[in-house]
Design brief:
about 300 residues, alpha/beta, 7-stranded mixed β-sheet, 5-stranded parallel β-sheet, elongated, binds NADP nicotinamide-adenine-dinucleotide phosphate
Length: about 300
């Protein structure tokens, strides 16, 4: 058992790091638990253009790193451990990691974010890491000069297609509808980018492998006619949305039907003293700027809860 801290924060993405910064700077003892490396999805983002204060945009990994340094500077403690389960009914609250370590805290901020949704087509699982990727900025360079496909129509798919167009010979953007969900600024840029080709109204059917067991093509079907088309490519980047990292919370907190944590604008969940921040929580706009806002709000409300 660890010492009892004022606030344990689960997840070191923008929401968790900001919660740590606010909590520690406000005089609370704060431990942030992170299963991999701090930064969350932000650290895997090429460029962030809509976070205020950076007229030319900020590199995702750099912004994430700076947030981490700022939280550490004010005394937040970041521990690498993968949370397996929680007991929010006990006092203090207990968090158990897959390592077997247990953490005790007077309050908890759940900021465990989200992970990319799978396409769910044949070939996807077998070829993950062999041409199927969920992170263009992590893996794009392996396919430099090649033809690749991005599947999806949101901001992630649009940003990935633009990023990959800079390093790949050709990028197909496959979307199931005839227009993107992504913000308008992306549409204009994509249309201006010569080596991006849209494949509209098309569902991914299967991903095919070559003799070496690496991706060689994506088969798509026209949504209206059912006609199949094979797109030869070295990689398929899947960008079809996210799912919350909340498996460890089932039974401990009220979640919605998609597994997102129900919380009010102050981050208060169904359990007093437990708060939620960032992409893991039910909310209408999932951005870095809303995640950091959530983190600050949750930390302030945790402090208020402790003062009662
Ligand atoms: P998203 O906005 O949920 O978009 C997911 C896209 O994938 C949609 O176009 C959806 O199609 C499509 N899709 C979902 N399931 C599919 C399936 N099984 N097969 C084929 N297509 C499927 O997800 P996101 O783009 O990852 O973005 C997640 C959040 O992060 C959003 O709130 C987004 O605004 C934010 N974000 C913001 C920025 C930025 O501001 N620069 C960058 C990245 C992400 P439909 O359109 O038909 O539903």
């Amino acid at each position: 058992m660890s010492e009892i801290v004022d606030v344990a924060i689960i997840g070191a993405g923008p929401a968790g790091l900001t919660a740590g910064l606010y909590a520690a700077r406000g005089g609370l003892s704060a431990t942030i638990l992170e299963r991999i490396t701090p930064g969350g999805q932000l650290a895997q983002t090429d460029k962030v253009e809509n976070y205020p204060g950076f007229p030319e945009g900020a590199e995702g990994w750099q912004l994430a790193y700076d947030m981490q340094q700022q939280a550490l500077h004010f005394g937040a403690n970041i521990v690498t451990d993968d949370v397996a389960s929680v007991d929010f009914a006990s006092d203090p609250k207990v968090i158990t990691a897959k390592s077997g370590n247990e953490y005790q805290a007077r309050t908890v901020i759940v900021a465990s974010g989200a992970h990319p949704r799978k396409l769910g087509v044949p070939g996807e699982g077998e070829l993950a890491g062999r041409g199927v990727s969920y992170c263009a900025t992590c893996d794009g360079n392996f396919f430099r000069g090649k033809t690749v496909v991005v599947v999806g129509g949101g901001n992630t798919a649009a940003g990935d297609a633009l990023y990959l167009a800079r390093i790949c010979e050709k990028v197909y953007l496959v979307h199931r509808r005839d227009s993107l969900r992504a913000t308008k600024i992306y549409h204009e840029r994509l249309e201006e980018t010569e080596n991006v080709e849209f494949v509209w109204n098309s569902n991914a059917v299967r991903i095919e492998a070559d003799d070496d067991g690496a991706v060689k093509s994506l088969v798509v079907a026209d949504k209206n006619t059912g006609e199949e088309r094979t797109i030869d490519c070295a990689a398929v980047f899947v960008a079809v949305g996210n799912e919350p990292n909340s498996d460890y919370l089932y039974g401990a907190l009220d979640l919605d039907e998609g597994g997102y944590v129900k919380a009010d604008e102050g981050g208060r969940t169904s359990v007093p003293g437990v708060f939620a921040a960032g992409d893991v929580r039910v909310k209408s706009l999932r951005q870095v700027v809303t995640a950091v806002s959530d983190g600050a709000q949750a930390a302030e409300n945790a402090a208020e809860y402790l003062a009662i």
